[in-house]
Amino acid sequence: MKSFRKELWIQSPDRMEFRNITPQVEEALRESGIQEGLCLVNSMHITSSVYINDDERGLLQDYGDFLERLAPHEPLSRYRHNLTGEDNGDAHVKRQIMGREVVVAVSAGKLDFGTWEQIFYGEFDGRRRKRVLVKIIGE
Ligand code: ZN
How many angstroms is it from 14 CA to the middle of ligand 1? Predict the structure, then answer.
């Protein structure tokens, strides 16, 4: 069995952003040379997410609105976590809602997606460099 590991670096200029990282994951899969197996993609931070859904502008805005309604950034005093001196209590909650990782089947050297599936990175406390782990195992 082969095993391949790669870190993707992401720096969002905004506090919150949704970014399609499918091309970078497909590039990692090509580099791995693996034809049949599994591909794990996870955020290495507790204030950002990796998830799968459609790449559609309205949907991305809906996610932002939905998350901001459930866990608004302000007032900062809303979150006990911010008593530590941080200001990202909302980002921890948003990451928990959107999840940590995805696993995609690898078939015939391709990510074996459903019709509209794409891999996204969801940033909730951006403006600094962050990492996403891609781990691929198989033959
Ligand atoms: Zn924090």
Answer: 17
Which residue is listed with tokens 């693996």? 34
Q: Enter the pTM of the model.
A: 0.96
pLDDT in tens, 18-53: 999 999 999 999 999 999 999 999 999 999 999 999
End-to-end CA distance of the chain: 5
Question: 21 CA to middle of ligand 1, Å?
Answer: 24
Identify the band that residue 79 occupies on the pLDDT scale cut at 50, 70 and 90.
very high
Pick the CATH number of 2-138 from 2.170.120.40, 1.20.1560.10, 2.60.120.460, 3.10.620.30: 2.60.120.460
Tokens of 47: 């204030």
Name the residue ranges covered by the structural domains of the chain. Answer: 2-138
- Distance (Å) from CA 87 to ligand 1 centroid: 7
